[in-house]
């Protein structure tokens, strides 16, 4: 179990802190058993097609704080993600009826000569220029491979400029080369917030922190009924809102892959209890999660009433969907904890899950509590899942497996993965809203979309007829895990 240390400038990467991995093939049950026995080892690929970067994940959380700016201390190429999040930010503003503003993101443009002479002066100039232009309430500096390798004193600059400008100027260490697990960047962003923005509580509030991306706010009604108020963090928060998240009555994780660090940090440093049950996906999982929420908030009786009402409402509809989906098979690709949650949803609907390509695996979360293990919950509640692959988004493995298992439907959480199902003529469902599948209603939401997708196969059938694959017949005939096991020499290519 990692203990949060807010005196340290950096949070250790997930490999070191949690023992997280990016390579595994086997069954979900085997993975859970290895993780529990402390015998989980990363398998290394002799060929890797792609990799994510922690800096992007840090940016995805910091870039949508309404009154902060982000300075990416990096070569300009590292700022390629600005466009994506500016787009998400604008769409989210419209949905929340916020004033339309573009994201305030800056890059220091580290160049070759800076790697010799250092780039701290450039960083200082950028901070001053950006401050004069925007007058933000906080400035976050995200680091890069280049700034990390040349050893720029970013923490020192942040500290000096904080004093000079009179606002928090906060270093967020998220160099891509340090971790193969890009979700480490979430931890870096949260560490910088807990360290330099959040203040000790003055009193307890009736707010409940919801650690989320930018989904559909499904917690408002439930928490209101329990006498609490949802506080969605971090995207679309203001700095003032973040200062006293330490006063909240509890922290809810929409996905512990996202919020493992901030949930544990708020509990360990400020005593805000984290709801440690796996997130509420599937009816069985939602029952457990609701009872844990009721216990932490002191609302056990009210929760039992809600569970009763919801069972009466949802279970008959669920039976109808199960009948429609009887005998159907699914394959899933998603980030870690969200993928585990979706396995529960699919199994709840009676689909046979033929396998999953999940981007990494955390054997434990920062709270150190095995009760938070959503994959163990899925396996224990619904049975094992074969063809379970921890794949760090390696599309070549995914395509090979999909071509062999040929499920009735592929479920994806990330846009870049859906085309592979479609190219093979497999109906593919992408749900970007991380809150869409949450709770009792979430099972019905997924059921409806899956039935719709299965009823509309014409598009992918035609697409497959006119598509070409970049992968050769040779590769499609190999074992999908050949490069993970070292069976195939990469010189074959
Ligand atoms: S920080 Fe490193 S890994 Fe990330 S985008 Fe820049 S160069 Fe690539």
Automatic annotation (TrEMBL):
GO molecular function, a single term: oxidoreductase activity
Broad class of enzyme this protein falls into: oxidoreductase
Keyword Oxidoreductase part of the UniProt annotation: yes
E.C. no: 1.3.7.7
SUPFAM superfamilies linked: Helical backbone' metal receptor
Domain Nitrogenase/oxidoreductase component: 53-454
InterPro entries linked: Nase/OxRdtase_comp1 (IPR000510), NifE-like (IPR049939)
A Pfam family of this chain: Oxidored_nitro
Keyword Ion transport part of the UniProt annotation: no
Annotated PANTHER family: NITROGENASE IRON-MOLYBDENUM COFACTOR BIOSYNTHESIS PROTEIN NIFE
Name of protein: Light-independent protochlorophyllide reductase subunit N
Source species of the chain: Sporomusa silvacetica DSM 10669
Upper classification of the organism: Bacteria, Bacillati, Bacillota, Negativicutes, Selenomonadales
Gene this chain is encoded by: bchN_1
